[in-house]
Write a structure and sequence with these properties.
By secondary structure, this protein is of the alpha+beta class. Helix content is 51%, strand content 8%. A five-stranded mixed beta sheet has the order 1-2-8-5-3. Strands 4-12-9 form a three-stranded antiparallel beta sheet. β10 and β11 form a beta hairpin. The radius of gyration is 24 Å and the shape is globular. 41% of the residues are buried.
Length: 540
C-alpha cells in the first residue's frame, strides 16, 4: 500500500496549527491510520518494524498462523493466516473495530481461534464458557499474566499491579482490596450522589451537553477521594484536570493508534501527539510524587514526635495512599516512591475511565429505549423521596440495566491473557506450555445460546436467570478479577439514579450507536450528546 502523503501532510499541519486530531474529517480516519502505519514501517529499522506488531495484552493481539494444535494432534483450533500488509490490515481492523473483528473471526473459525506467527507460542481467543471456567480456576503459579501487559507500562509504570505476577501480585492485591469493600465502600455512596449533583449543578433546560466530560469528572472525583482521602485542594484539582486531558489524548481511533505502534511513539515536540502525552504524563508524575512525599513526611513526623493527636488522626485514615505507605512486606520493607506512584496511577486510570464509559452507555440505552426508562423510573419512584443510597443499590431492575449495559458492549472486549507455565488440558483441549489464553468477553456475551437475541438490549434476561462467572465476565475473573468491581457497580447505579431523580434528559440524536476505540478500551462515541429537557425539584 502506498503512503497517502497528502493526508499525512494534512495530519501534521493539523497538529502544528494547534488543532486536535478529531478535527480531521471522520471519513479520513481509516486512510490515515493505514498511511501512518505504512509510514512507520518505512521509517523503522528491521528491529523496529518487528515491534509494530502489538504485544500480547488485554485487547490488541491480532493475526496470523496455522492453528493445528499440538504435535500429538489432540486438538485443532483454526485462525487467520494473513501475512505482510494483509496482516497489517488485520491490525487496523482490530484497532478501529475490534468487536467487528471478533464477530467476523467467530463466523469464519468458530468461538475459539488461534493467532500468532509460525514457530511462536500461539495465542487463543477463548469464546467457549467451559474453557473460560477452567482458565479462571488457574492461579498465579500456573499462568503468567502481568508480563503480557507490557503495552500498559507506558501508561502505568513497571511496578503496577497490572504487570505483576506470582507473590508480588498477590501481596499488592491484598493491600489494595480493603478500600473497595465493606464499610469503606458504603462510605462512598453519599459521595457518589454528591459529586453527581456537583457535576450537573449548572445544567439548564434547553441546554445540550457532550455526555462524556461531566461523567468522567464524576468517576475521577470518586477515585481521587478513595486514593487520597481528601475532597479538594489545589494539587488534586490540577491532577484531576491533567488526568482528564491525558485520557482524552487517546479518545479517538487515530490518536489511540500511537499506543499500538511503537514506531509512532516519537517525541517531536509539544505539538506532536506523543510529545503532548509525554509532557502530560510527566506533570501528572510530579504531582503524585509530591503528594507521596508530603504524606510520607507527615507519617514520619507523627512517629518521631509521638504526637498522639496527629498519630491518631493519620492512623485512622483509610485512604489508599496512607494504607500503602504504612504497609510492610514480610521482611519489614516499605514500598518505594516509584512503586507507590505506579499503583496510584493504575488506580486513577483503571478506577474511573472504564466506569465513565459504562455510565455513558447506560445514559444512552435508558434514553434510546423508552420502555427501559419507564420501568426504571417506576422502580426508583417506589422508594419514595430521599431514598437510602444503599437501598437504591439493591434495586433488581436497576442492577439488571447495569449488567445488560456491561454485557452488550463490554468496555474491555477481552480479559487479561493467561500464558501457561506448563502443558495442560482444559475442558478437553490440550495446550502446550507457553500458549497464551485470552477469554473473549465480547464473544461470550454475544453467544445466542447464552443470551438469546444478543444484539437486543433486554435487561430482563438478568432477572430471568443468574449467569455464572464464566458466562458474564465484564470484570474479568479468577485471580485477576477487578478489585474495584463493587465500587464501579455502585457508581453506575447511584449516578444514574441521581440524574434521573433530578432531570429529564433526551438524546440529541436518537439513533443506533456502536462502540468506538478509546485508548485500550471500547466506549460510546466521544461526541454523544444529551439534551436537558427539564430540571426537577431537588428532593435532597
Amino acid at each position: 500500500m502506498l503512503v497517502d502523503r497528502w493526508l499525512i501532510e494534512r495530519f501534521h499541519f493539523t497538529l502544528k496549527s494547534g488543532c486536535k486530531i478529531e478535527d480531521l474529517p471522520l471519513q479520513h480516519h481509516d486512510r490515515l491510520l493505514k498511511s501512518l502505519a505504512t509510514y512507520s514501517i518505512g521509517h523503522s529499522s528491521h528491529s523496529e518494524a518487528e515491534q509494530i506488531t502489538p504485544q500480547p495484552n488485554i485487547n490488541m493481539i491480532i493475526d496470523s498462523s496455522n492453528s493445528e494444535g499440538n504435535s500429538e494432534g489432540q486438538y485443532t483450533i483454526d485462525g487467520p493466516k494473513a501475512k505482510g500488509l494483509r496482516r497489517m490490515f488485520r491490525i487496523f481492523h482490530l484497532i478501529l473495530q475490534p468487536t467487528k473483528y471478533m464477530e467476523s473471526s467467530v463466523q469464519r473459525y468458530g468461538s475459539m481461534f488461534q493467532i500468532g506467527s509460525e514457530g511462536a507460542s500461539p495465542l487463543v481467543y477463548v469464546g467457549e464458557p467451559e474453557v473460560v471456567k477452567e482458565i479462571f480456576a488457574l492461579d498465579g503459579d500456573q499462568v503468567v499474566t502481568g508480563q503480557g501487559n507490557g503495552v500498559l507500562e507506558t501508561m502505568v509504570g513497571k511496578h503496577s499491579i497490572l504487570l505483576l505476577d506470582g507473590d508480588p501480585h498477590r501481596q499488592q492485591r491484598k493491600l489494595l482490596m480493603p478500600p473497595f469493600h465493606g464499610e469503606q465502600l458504603r462510605a462512598y455512596a453519599h459521595l457518589i450522589c454528591d459529586i453527581t449533583r456537583q457535576i450537573s449543578a449548572q445544567w439548564q433546560p434547553g441546554q445540550t451537553i457532550v455526555a462524556r466530560p461531566p461523567i468522567q469528572n464524576l468517576t475521577l472525583g470518586v477515585i481521587l477521594q478513595a486514593v487520597f482521602g481528601v475532597p479538594s485542594g489545589e494539587r488534586l484539582s490540577r491532577l484531576q484536570q491533567l488526568m482528564s486531558t491525558l485520557l482524552d489524548s487517546f479518545a479517538y481511533p487515530i490518536s489511540a493508534s500511537f499506543l499500538f505502534f511503537p514506531a509512532l511513539q516519537k517525541d517531536l515536540g509539544e505539538w506532536s501527539p506523543w510529545g503532548k502525552f509525554i509532557r502530560l504524563r510527566e506533570e501528572v508524575r510530579s504531582l503524585i510524587y509530591a503528594e507521596i512525599r508530603d504524606r510520607r513526611q507527615q507519617l514520619e513526623r507523627s512517629a518521631i514526635e509521638q504526637d498522639e493527636k496527629l498519630g491518631e488522626k493519620l492512623g485512622e485514615k483509610t485512604d489508599i495512599l496512607t494504607l500503602l505507605l504504612q504497609a510492610r512486606d514480610e521482611d519489614g520493607g516499605a514500598m518505594s516512591d516509584a512503586e507507590l506512584h505506579d499503583e496510584i496511577v493504575t488506580l486513577l486510570l483503571a478506577g474511573h475511565e472504564t466506569t465513565a464509559s459504562a455510565i455513558v452507555w447506560m445514559l444512552y440505552w435508558i434514553h434510546y429505549l423508552p420502555e427501559v426508562q419507564q420501568k426504571l423510573r417506576a422502580e426508583l419512584d417506589a422508594l419514595g423521596p430521599d431514598p437510602d443510597p444503599m437501598a437504591i443499590a439493591q434495586l433488581p431492575y436497576l442492577t439488571a440495566v447495569c449488567q445488560e449495559a456491561l454485557r452488550i458492549y463490554p468496555i474491555t472486549p477481552t480479559t487479561f491473557i493467561r500464558r501457561l507455565r506448563e502443558p495442560m488440558t482444559l475442558a478437553g483441549y490440550r495446550f502446550k506450555a507457553g500458549t497464551a489464553l485470552m477469554p473473549a468477553t465480547y464473544i461470550i456475551h454475544q453467544r445466542p445460546d447464552l443470551y438469546p437475541e444478543p444484539k437486543q438490549f433486554r435487561p430482563e434476561r438478568f432477572l430471568e436467570r443468574q449467569f455464572a462467572p464464566h458466562e458474564f465476565l465484564p470484570f474479568g475473573g479468577g485471580h485477576r478479577y477487578c478489585i474495584g468491581s463493587a465500587l464501579a457497580m455502585m457508581e453506575l447505579k447511584l449516578s444514574i439514579a441521581t440524574l434521573l431523580a433530578d432531570f429529564e434528559l433526551a438524546l440529541l440524536h436518537s439513533r443506533p450507536l456502536l462502540p468506538a476505540r478509546r485508548g485500550l478500551t471500547m466506549a460510546p462515541p466521544a461526541a454523544m450528546k444529551l439534551r436537558i429537557k427539564a430540571r426537577k425539584t431537588n428532593k435532597a
